[in-house]
From TrEMBL:
It comes from Streptomyces qinzhouensis. Residues 14-68 form the HTH cro/C1-type domain. This is Helix-turn-helix transcriptional regulator. Pfam families: HTH_3, MLTR_LBD. The lineage of its organism: Bacteria, Bacillati, Actinomycetota, Actinomycetes, Kitasatosporales. One of its GO terms (molecular function) is DNA binding. PANTHER family: BLL4672 PROTEIN-RELATED, BLL5781 PROTEIN. InterPro entries: Cro/C1-type_HTH, Lambda_DNA-bd_dom_sf, MLTR_LBD.
Length: 268
C-alpha cells in the first residue's frame, strides 16, 4: 500500500507549469537531473519534493520569482525570495542607479514600471510627452497602459494607435501566460475595452497605411505639432533575488528617424 504524502497543491501546480511550458515529464526530468517516474510521483502527490527540487524544477520551467514562492508555500516550505518595498532603505542603491540611468538617457523618453505597469520612475523625456493628458490619469499610482491607451491619455495623439494598441495588448497577453495575476487580468480587460478615438491611423483607414520603413514597429506620436517615431526596448534584471526587483522593467524609447532625434535634442 502506498501512503500519500501531504503537500498542499504543489504537485498540481508544478504539473500546470510544465504543461504551460509544453514540456514532457521525461524532458523535465532530464533537465532537472531526475527521473520521469519521480516527476510523476511529485505531480500526483505520491512523493513530496524537497525544497531544492521545487526550486530546481521551477528554474527549468522558467517560473517567475513570485510564483516560485507560491510553489514553496504549496510544498510546505517558507518563501525563498523577499518582496521588498522600493521605499525600503535597502533599495536605495537600486533606485539611485535607475534614476541615473533614466537621466543619462534624456532627452529620449525612458520609464521604469512594475509588474502591473505602474510607473516607478520616469525621466524628463518621458514627462514631456505627457503634456495635455487628463489629470486623473496622472494621479498616483500612474499606470503606463492607462496613460497610453485611455481616450483622454496619449491615444488620440498616436498616429498608428491600432497597431501600437495591438502590440501593447499582445505584450500583456504574453505576461499573463507567465504569471497568475487577477490584477493584471483586470487591467488587461480594462484597457482592451477602451474605445479607439477617431483620427488618422485610428480607424479602418489604418489598414491602408504603407508599411513602416523602420527596423521595428515604432510608436508614431504627435507632440506640439511634430510627429515623432519612437521604438521601444525593455530591459529587466538578470537573476533577481527579490520579487519586487524581478517584476521591474526599464523601457527606453529610441528615435526611429533623424527628424525625431533632432526634435528631441532641441527640447534640452
Amino acid at each position: 500500500m502506498t501512503t500519500l504524502v501531504t503537500a498542499p497543491g504543489v504537485g498540481p501546480l508544478l504539473r500546470a507549469w510544465r504543461e504551460r511550458r509544453g514540456v514532457s515529464q521525461l524532458d523535465l526530468a532530464l533537465r532537472a537531473d531526475s527521473s520521469a517516474r519521480h516527476i510523476s510521483f511529485v505531480e500526483t502527490g505520491r512523493s513530496r519534493p524537497s525544497e531544492d527540487m521545487i526550486l530546481r524544477l521551477a528554474e527549468q520551467l522558467d517560473v517567475p520569482v513570485r510564483e516560485q514562492n507560491a510553489l514553496l508555500l504549496a510544498g510546505g516550505y517558507a518563501p525563498r525570495f523577499p518582496e521588498t518595498s522600493l521605499d525600503d532603505p535597502s533599495m536605495g542603491a537600486l533606485m539611485e542607479g535607475m534614476r541615473q540611468l533614466l537621466h543619462g538617457y534624456d532627452p529620449y523618453p525612458a520609464v521604469v514600471v512594475d509588474g502591473l505597469y505602474n510607473v516607478v520612475a520616469a525621466n524628463l523625456g518621458m514627462t514631456r510627452l505627457l503634456d495635455g493628458i487628463a489629470p486623473h490619469l496622472l494621479t498616483p499610482p500612474l499606470n503606463g497602459m492607462r496613460i497610453t491607451l485611455h481616450p483622454e491619455g496619449l491615444a488620440p495623439r498616436i498616429r498608428n494607435l491600432r497597431e501600437w494598441r495591438h502590440h501593447l495588448r499582445h505584450q500583456m497577453e504574453r505576461q499573463l501566460a507567465l504569471v497568475r495575476s487577477d490584477e493584471l487580468r483586470k487591467l488587461y480587460e480594462e484597457v482592451s475595452a477602451y474605445p479607439v478615438p477617431d483620427g488618422p491611423g485610428h480607424g479602418a483607414e489604418a489598414e491602408e497605411l504603407p508599411p513602416y520603413p523602420y527596423f521595428a514597429l515604432p510608436m508614431v506620436i504627435e507632440h506640439e505639432g511634430h510627429v515623432l517615431s519612437l521604438v521601444s526596448s525593455i530591459s529587466t534584471f538578470n537573476t533577481p533575488m527579490d520579487v519586487t526587483v524581478s517584476e521591474l522593467a526599464i523601457e527606453t524609447f529610441l528615435p526611429a528617424d533623424p527628424e525625431t532625434v533632432d526634435y528631441l535634442r532641441s527640447l534640452v
